[in-house]
């Protein structure tokens, strides 16, 4: 675990000294966009045109942010257009590596380099910043289009529709305001909330994060008692963003990140909803329990120095969800 400083790798953990023990996730640096014809998007940044086999996705199967991108690649039928390289689940002193001694870890199938940082350095030899997944990479200009999963799923949602003919819309105009509101709370208190609890280095920071997390899970349970999905009858990006965290909850966040007031399976609606999304066509193929159990328990020395993997419950993901 570390970061690049002026193009040089430094093995450093997150600094929580200046923030009273709070983990603060840094913003991503690469925020360009793929659009149907390459015109810049209204979100700013450079525009890249949607083309088959021009882009490559670097992911970890362990990472909930990268997982969102994989879900959208599957939901939008992009598998034949955008190929994927999968890092090894252990993120150790060299950061993410392209070792292949774990089932599903492909190595870098484009350049054959050993570390994920080599991809960033290929685009920006003097880069300063964290070496994170996912990366949406442009093979043609050898540039990072984006390393922000929230943006990548929006691009995947519509940019390639003219090529694939898949017009399923997970960010419909009619629901954007509500999606924004839900995403904002879910990001802060659930998606990132589990990390804030797990990486806290003071009791206060942990208490704040874990209470907000369970307040939000109670709130979400209430929404799902009345609605099939977070915004009503329509499945949207808000659901997939939440699902990425929920599917990891009982196996890693509950124990490893001390988010243990409840298990996910204690919430009847949230647990059935998570199973429904898991059972969505093609999605289970993108959920690699072995990668995330290994990743979290091996990669965070400060949290689990002896790398002991807990016994973990066996969950019946294919049990009928009974929703809808
Ligand atoms: N905002 C980013 C966050 C990505 C992120 O933090 N990925 C983690 C893995 S779960 C990572 O690569 N961390 C390495 C590091 O922070 O050095 C996104 O959603 O794409």
UniProtKB/TrEMBL annotation:
MF (Gene Ontology): glutathione transferase activity; oxidoreductase activity
Residue intervals of the GST C-terminal domain: 172-296
Residues bound to glutathione: 96, 130-133, 148-149
Active-site residues annotated for this sequence: 63 (nucleophile), 195 (proton donor/acceptor)
Enzyme Commission code(s) on record: 1.8.-.-
Top-level EC class as recorded in UniProt: oxidoreductase
PANTHER family tied to this protein: GLUTATHIONE S-TRANSFERASE OMEGA-LIKE 1-RELATED, GLUTATHIONYL-HYDROQUINONE REDUCTASE
Protein name according to UniProt: Glutathionyl-hydroquinone reductase YqjG
Source species: Palleronia abyssalis
